Amino acid sequence: MPVLFDILGDIANLSFVIKIMCFSYLTYWLYATFYNSKIIFGIALIVAGYFTITYSDATTALVAIFGLLFVLGPQLQQTIWFGLAPLLQPFGIDLMGNTVNQKMSMLEQEKHSKELQSKIAAGEASQEEVEAFQRQQQLQQMAAMEGQEDIGDDVPNYDAMKKRSMMLRR
Amino acid sequence: MSIFDDIGNIFNIIWIIALAFIAYWLYNWAKETLVFSSTLAYIVAGILIYYLVFEYPVIGFLGVTGWIIITSGLLMGLAIFAPVFGNIMYKMKKGEGQ
Predict the structure, then answer these.
(1) Per-residue pLDDT, A153
(2) Band of residue A155 on the pLDDT scale cut at 50, 70, 90
(3) What's the pLDDT at B52?
(4) Would you say residue A101 lies in a domain?
(5) pLDDT recorded at residue B58
(6) For the segment B38-48, what is each residue's pLDDT rounded down to a tens digit?
(7) Residues in chain B within 8 Å Cβ distance of A9
(8) In total, how many domains does chain B have?
């Protein structure tokens, strides 16, 4: 029965390809490093070839780690921060380590405030909860007012514009 | 049914074009990496193309396309779909609340 999948043979062929690519990268780096001295480049190339053939596992692993972290490091960082982190955020996974439960999300805040309102209306809320709810309302009002003041400072004649738009509405 | 034969032929043509692009990409990589010696570049390109296009074309295709996707920065565009998942999770949580 002929062998259908020569797995170890395939791994041997692919490891040869990886060794060739590793040696090519090493020659590229050595050429850039010893651009001015071809003799040192030649000697270093022979040493690199010896290391790639005899200590191939360690050499390819080191070249791969160096290539991934040093050469592609910024690219990987950008991809993780701007590609992966926003995707994981809706599922509650924060790459910085802050769990979502530590800070209430907008939805849970809305729920919490609605529950508080209904409790206060029913008269079941304790004094602390009432005070907390009043503080929350005050903060929201202050934030809304702050926003308006900022616009007034930045845009010239904002008050005049607002008066005109109010008059037009009437 | 000749339509299945036609689909097979079209896929075959597309696969050959893709492998030709993979071979060109590997030749270009060898040329850029081994700038100092064109002979060595041809030898390395020949080895890479033989093993990654003729012997193991699937591995070559996946490896080269994966490398292009990772290094081109296309994965940063995945963040475009983050609000989609956010909306789905928001609606799921709202559904649970109700």
Answers:
(1) 54
(2) low
(3) 96
(4) no
(5) 94
(6) 999 999 999 99
(7) none
(8) 1
Q: Taking CB atoms and an 8 Å limit, are A83 and B75 in contact across chains?
A: yes
A110 and A163 together in one domain: yes
Nearest-by-CA chain A residue for B34: A28
Mutate to test the interface with A, among B36, B38, B55 (most CBs of A within 10 A): B36
Residue B33 token pair: 């990496």
A25 to B73: CB separation less than 8 angstroms, yes or no: no
C-alpha to C-alpha distance for A24 and B29, rounded to whole angstroms? 10
Please indicate, yes or no, if residue A97 is contained in any of the structural domains.
no
A13 touches chain B (CB under 8 A): yes
Among B33, B71, B78, the residue with its CB nearest the CB of A87 is B78
Mean pLDDT across chain B: 92
Can you give the pLDDT at residue A33? Answer: 95
Q: pTM above 0.80?
A: no
Taking CB atoms and an 8 Å cutoff, what residues of chain B touch A91? 85, 89
Q: In chain A, how many domains are there?
A: 2
Instruction: Report the residue count for chain B.
Output: 98
Closest of A74, A106, A77, A114 to residue A89, by C-alpha = A106
pLDDT greater at residue A6 or residue A149: A6
Question: What average pLDDT does this structure show over A70-76?
Answer: 90
How distant is the Cα of A117 from the closest Cα of chain B, in angstroms?
A: 17
Q: Does A34 touch chain B (CB under 8 A)?
A: no
**ipTM of the predicted structure?**
0.80
A14 touching chain B per CB within 8 A: yes
Please tell me the predicted confidence (pLDDT) of residue A150: 53
Q: Where among A53, A71, A89 does a domain terminate?
A: A71
**A74 to chain B: closest CA residue:** B71
